Structure formats: structure tokens, C-alpha cells
Amino acid sequence: MAAAGPASAHGGVLPLRGASVVNTRAAGSSDGLGRLLRRHGAETIVALPGQRLRIAADPAAARSALRAALRGDGMVFVSPAAVRYAWQLLPALRLPRRLQVCAVGAGTAAALRRRGVAGFAQPAGSQDSEGLLAEPVLRGIRGQSWAVIGAAGGRDLLLTGLRRRGARAGLVEVYQRLPARWTRLHLARLETAPRPLLVVASSAQSLAALATALPAGLVLALRTAELVVSSLRLATLAREHGFTRIHVAESALAADLAAACARALARHRL
Questions:
Q1: What is the pTM (predicted TM-score) of this model?
Q2: pLDDT (tens digit per residue) in 10-19
Q3: Where are the alpha helices (DSSP H) in the chain?
Q4: Interval 200-244: pLDDT, tens
Q5: Are residues 90 and 123 in the same domain?
Q6: Dihedral (C-alpha) 222, 30, 87, 206: value to the nearest 10 degrees?
Q7: For residue 13, what pLDDT is reported?
Q8: Are 252 and 232 spatial neighbours (Cβ–Cβ below 8 Å)?
Q9: What domain range includes position 218?
Q10: Which of 133, 149, 177 represents a domain boundary (last residue)?
Q11: 223 and 188 inside one domain
């Protein structure tokens, strides 16, 4: 008879025991995902950031654009990083009550709440740009001034959608995305991580890096691993990159990603 696995504090077997998880979130933006995965019993956490995030290349210009956006009608934060860097640029930032604030996804909403922001809109359906554009708050915005708070190089869907509805919309770049910078140590940890292997990705940039910036042997190994993504859009992109064992989490929140990892591993072990 096989020995029982390690037990959780509640007496049950830890759902990720014996597995390795590749965490592709950028350093400083994982919102405790690694710690949560360990509490769920993951044997090894391989940090393999799919991109690097940095404050805006021209902080003074970013502060000026952010202050100007506060005088507009609406503001959309596209990610938890957008929230973090906006407040890093303006530590005393206060959002006027008359300003309609929106958050793309549950993770961004949680980041705003941690900053004391309330009364903002977020998607009721899919936790992405499409979900937010379906919300009533973004109807009837013709002639209004809206700012999208984020970084260059992301999706243009929000800006395009706002402009098609007649709003004056612009991007306020509070941070920048930089390519992944992996060392031999990163690759060695990935090669030697105990199997089974799960991979967590919550951005298109991370998926692209996994599929194109690793040695061919490692790419093949990852394509056959259990891949957990944070949205249906990323699931589609993952298939285009050749991943086949794809699982969609409820959102990009750490708790939802960890829960999806547990479900993926359970299916793998059937």
C-alpha cells in the first residue's frame, strides 16, 4: 500500500504534493503565488519570470500624464502592476470621486482595494478587457476623456474600444515591460525540477517567452506539462504556441491560480 502524502493543516492531503510548479509571473508581481503553492504542497517552485517590469522610462512625464488623467472623466487600470506603479509615481495619489474608475480583472480590483479605492467597476463576466468593455459603465461615453493606465506593448483592445464609442482615450505609461532575462541557473532549475510539472502563466508575454526563448528541449517539455492560464484568451494563445494540456483558472488571483493547479494535477493523476 502506498504511503499517505503530507497532510494539510486541516487534515487532508496537500493537493500539490510531489509536483513542481513553474511560476512565470514577473518578479515583484506574484502576489504571494509562490508561498500559496508551497502551502498547497508543491515540492519545487521554479521562478521563471516571463517578463521584467520596471517603472516608466520617463517618470517625470508619467507623473505629468497621470495628473492630467485625474482631470478626465474615467480611468482604467489594466493590471495590478498598473496600480502599483501609479502609486509608486504618486505616493499620495487620490482618485476624485467624480472620476469613474475601472479595473481589468479580479487581481487589479484587489490591488485597488488595497489602496483604499472603492466604488470602481470591474467585469462581471470574463476577467479581461472584453469583459470590462461589456459593462454598462463603458456605454454612453461619447465625448468623454478616458485614460488607460498601463504599459506600452500590451493589447490595444481597450483603447480601440473606448475610441470607437466616441471617447477621447489615451494610454498613460506608468511602467514598462522588458524581455525576460534568464540565466543558466534558471534553466538548470527547470531541467532538474521533479515531475510532474505544472506551469502558471497570466500574460501573453510570458507565454511567448516560454514558447520562443528557451532551448528546444525545454520548450518541448513545457508543451507537454500541465499549463494553467488565467483567461480563455490566454488559453487560445497557448494552443497557438503548441501547448496541449491547458487549464483555465477563474481569474489571475493567486488563490484561483493555485486552485486551478490543484485541479490540473488531480486530472493528470487520474
A1: 0.87
A2: 446 799 999 9
A3: 33-39, 59-69, 80-89, 106-114, 129-133, 157-164, 184-192, 204-212, 216-223, 232-240, 254-268
A4: 999 999 999 999 999 999 999 999 999 999 999 999 999 999 999
A5: yes
A6: 0
A7: 75
A8: no
A9: 20-50+180-268
A10: 177
A11: yes
